[in-house]
Design goal:
With about 110 residues, the protein is mostly helical. Helices cover about 70% and strands about 0% of the residues. The chain is elongated and about 60 Å long. About 10% of the residues are buried.
C-alpha cells in the first residue's frame, strides 16, 4: 500500500484547497468522479445502495488512474537513483530528496 497523497501535495502544483481526490482527478485526468454529500451518505447507504456502490467504485477508479499515470513510474524512477524505498520517496519533502541525491552523487 502506497499513500499517494503526500506525493500529490508535493508534486501536483495545485492550490492548497484543490489537493483532494476529487479535485485532483478533475484537474489531472479530466474525469468527473461521482460525488456524494457527506450528510447524505448514511441515508443513501440505506435507501440507494447502488448509488453508494458507484461512488465507491468511482473513488477506486480515480485513485488507480492517478497512481498509475502520475505516481508509479515517477516514484520507482526516483528509487533507482536515490537509495530509499518507495514509501520513503513518497513521504519525504523535495529538499530531503535533493539532499539524498546529492549524497549519492558525492560518494
Amino acid at each position: 500500500h502506497l499513500d499517494a497523497f503526500c506525493s500529490v501535495k508535493r508534486d501536483s502544483y495545485l492550490p492548497q484547497g484543490s489537493q483532494g481526490l476529487k479535485a485532483v482527478t478533475k484537474y489531472k485526468l479530466g474525469y468527473d468522479p461521482v460525488e456524494v454529500d457527506p450528510e447524505d451518505m448514511v441515508r443513501f447507504a440505506r435507501d440507494r445502495p447502488s448509488h453508494m456502490a458507484s461512488y465507491s467504485v468511482s473513488d477506486a477508479v480515480a485513485t488507480y488512474y492517478l497512481y498509475d499515470k502520475y505516481v508509479h513510474m515517477f516514484i520507482f524512477s526516483l528509487c533507482t537513483i536515490i537509495p530509499m524505498g518507495p514509501e520513503d520517496v513518497l513521504r519525504k519533502g523535495s529538499g530531503t530528496l535533493c539532499e539524498a541525491l546529492l549524497m549519492v552523487e558525492a560518494c
